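User: Run a structure prediction on this.
Assistant: Running it now.
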Amino acid sequence: MRWTPRDCEQPPESDGYDVVNYSPDEVADAVFYARHPELKGRKIRPGETNLAREWSAIQNRLPEFICYNP
């Protein structure tokens, strides 16, 4: 995933991934599950604390300029 800084009112860049209208959680999920295809999208289980920490770390590193309008 490549972040393309831009004004949220502009149309998406044609050469990057569009993160407009995706929540930070959805973007974190996309990165996390791309790193862990063996999980096949299943939720992190309560005992999988390392995976939970990794997901949280990904979400905490997301740029603040993600345009999200729920």
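The chain has a mean pLDDT of 76.
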